[in-house]
Amino acid sequence: MAYRNKTYVAFDGDNDIRYYHLMRAWRQRDNSTFNFYDAHDLNTARDSSQEISIKRQLSIRMMNTKVFVLLIGSNTRYLRKFVKWEIETAIRLNLPIICVNLNKSRSSDNLCPVSLENKLAIFIPFEKKIMQHALENWPDSYKKYKLLGKSGPYFYKESVYDKL
Fold first, then answer.
1. What is the structure's pLDDT at 13?
2. Exposed, middle or buried by CB within 10 Å (0-12, 13-18, 19+), for 40?
3. CA 68/CA 59 separation, integer angstroms
4. Please, which residues bridge with residue 98 across strands?
5. Where, by residue number, does the polypeptide cross the bilayer (predicted)?
6. What's the whole-model pTM score?
7. What is the CATH T-level fold of the domain 6-163, as seen in this structure?
8. CA end-to-end span of the chain
9. Would you tell me how many other CB atoms lie within 10 Å of the CB of residue 48?
10. Domain-by-domain residue ranges, the chain?
11. CA–CA dist 111, 16 (Å, integer)
12. Running along the chain, 164 residues long, what does each successive block of 10 average in pLDDT?
């Protein structure tokens, strides 16, 4: 079994890749406390033209994943080929899911993919401090809530944002 210490980030590669690149830039800044071990650093698909090859490589990345981050943009809800599969795989692997709203919403909204309806996940806006907080804290909260049989969307209270 793989050592799970990575963060898997799923997003709309056509429209939202700049947000993923910004997350990587936050991680690389010398004076930043924002950090995550990116599952996308592990490998690349050898035959990137074949869906089955891509999914095989993504599966390997997910097996090394501690937490699944979904960047939710205006088109994410409609993506069926890879993002839907990534979400379903994260759910099947029982990964803690952090939904990051690119529209800065602090809750689930009509942009959320149907695959996540009634699934245990935390919803946060695309902001560095709350993202770091979620990466550090949501996996343990997720485990606790799962043991209690909880499901559905979760949100941080205003007091968490005030502290940050």
1. 87
2. middle
3. 12
4. 69, 122
5. none
6. 0.89
7. Rossmann fold (3.40.50)
8. 36
9. 10
10. 6-163
11. 14
12. 75 92 80 61 56 79 89 93 92 96 95 94 96 94 96 96 95
The three-state DSSP-derived secondary structure of the chain is CCCCCEEEEECCCCCCHHHHHHHHHHHHCCCCCCCCCEHHHCCCCCCCCCHHHHHHHHHHHHHCEEEEEEEECCCHHHCCCCHHHHHHHHHHCCCCEEEEECCCCCCCCCCCCHHHCCCCEEEEECCHHHHHHHHHHHHHHHHHHHHCCCCCEEECCHHHHHHC
CA–CA gap between residue 48 and residue 53 (Å, rounded): 7
Q: What is the pLDDT of residues 71-81, one digit of tens each?
A: 999 999 998 88
The gap from C-alpha 153 to its chain's centroid, in whole angstroms, comes to: 14
Give the number of other Cβ atoms within 10 Å of residue 67's Cβ.
24
